[in-house]
Amino acid sequence: MAGKLDISVVVPLYNETESLPELCDWIQRVMNQHRFSYEILLIDDGSTDGSWDSIQRLSQANGHIKGIQFNRNYGKSAALNIGFQNSSGSVVITMDADLQDSPEEIPILYKMIEEDGFDLVSGWKKKRLDPLSKTIPSKFFNYVTRKISGIKLHDFNCGLKAYNQSVIKSIDVYGEMHRYIPLIAKWQGFTNISEKTVTHQPRKYGVTKFGLERFIFGFLDLLSLTFVTKYKKRPMHFFGTMGILSFVLGLAITIWLISEKLYFNLYLNQQVRSVVDQPLFFLALVALIIGVQLFLAGFLAEILILNSPHKNDYTISHKIGFD
Asked: Are the CB atoms for 45 and 126 separated by under 8 Å?
């Protein structure tokens, strides 16, 4: 296993002890059949069912299998991030441990990265073996993500994906951002993204670890990721713009109310309500205060960015002519 490997298979898992031996055997058969050099990274996300014991036995029996164990459950994003950091294959394949992703897809995914030149290939479970309570929210979730991101993928959350190694070494996956790895990759400059229709296997062991709350959290994560990625190096562009708009709106309403008061009193000689007796005045006052606060928030954020040691961190794809 010296030198660079063809493929690293990263498998995040939580309480999947029953499926691990079958999954590893299946991956090994595919790798041997196609003569790939490979490693299998099993990332135990704080399992409580003996999954780590299974990983230890599998690793002792097969030198291609490596294991990493978390001391508690951190989530799929953390498991993937650690797997990416420790992988050494030219192509990195991720798949779930529940046997619903087929290792038979690996050779084609590898070809799409190595020969066709894609940065990232995402699986698309076109025919899903899930109940409507999962498929309908998933379709809506993918539609919204597709519109916001501009990436034409049908299944952002499919666990079966293939990456060029340069992609996974250039991104950080945290929180619950594993759903948006294609979006993170795109914003790091890896725009050659494609998808492949993959087979969705029926669940053989255990139960799903995700509920409907993942869709709520997913949309919150999407908003957070969109904002942070777009404005993290120029927060004043967001806060300053919103602050100015709010301040100008409040100022315009205030000038209108005062002008109206003067017009009726001085020119028409009519008594009207005092400016401070009108609800619109207090809305204008709130808009003025919010505008100032937003502008100050952007100013403070710019100071934090200026003093950040990572303010000039940029992804460099190639260098030439340097020693």
From this structure: no
Beta-carbon contacts of residue 93 (< 8 Å; ≥ 6 apart): 7, 8, 9, 10, 106, 109, 110, 160, 161, 162, 163
Over 80: is that where the pLDDT of 267 sits? Answer: no
Half-sphere exposure of 130 (CA within 13 A, CB side): 20
Instruction: Please name the residues in contact with 253: beta carbons below 8 A apart, sequence gap of 6 or more.
Output: 280, 281, 283, 284, 287
| Contacts with 291 (C-beta within 8 Å, 6 or more apart), sequence order | 243, 244, 245, 246, 247, 248, 249, 250
Per residue in 209-261, pLDDT tens? 555 566 666 667 777 767 766 777 778 888 888 999 999 999 999 998 888 88
Residue type for position 13: L
The span from the first CA to the last CA of the chain, in angstroms, equals 29
Three-class SS of residue 150? coil
Query: Residue 2 — pLDDT band, cuts 50, 70, 90?
Result: very low
CA 175 to CA 79: how far, in whole Å? 11
With cut-offs at 50, 70 and 90, classify the pLDDT of residue 310.
Answer: low
Helical spans, DSSP H, in 232-270: 235-262
Find the helix or strand (DSSP H, E) in which 187 lies. Answer: helix 181-187
Q: C-alpha angle 44/49/51, rounded to 5°?
A: 40
CA–CA distance from 163 to each of 84, 96, 235 (Å)? 10, 15, 31
Does the global pTM surpass 0.70?
A: yes
Task: Report the mean per-residue pLDDT for the chain.
Answer: 85
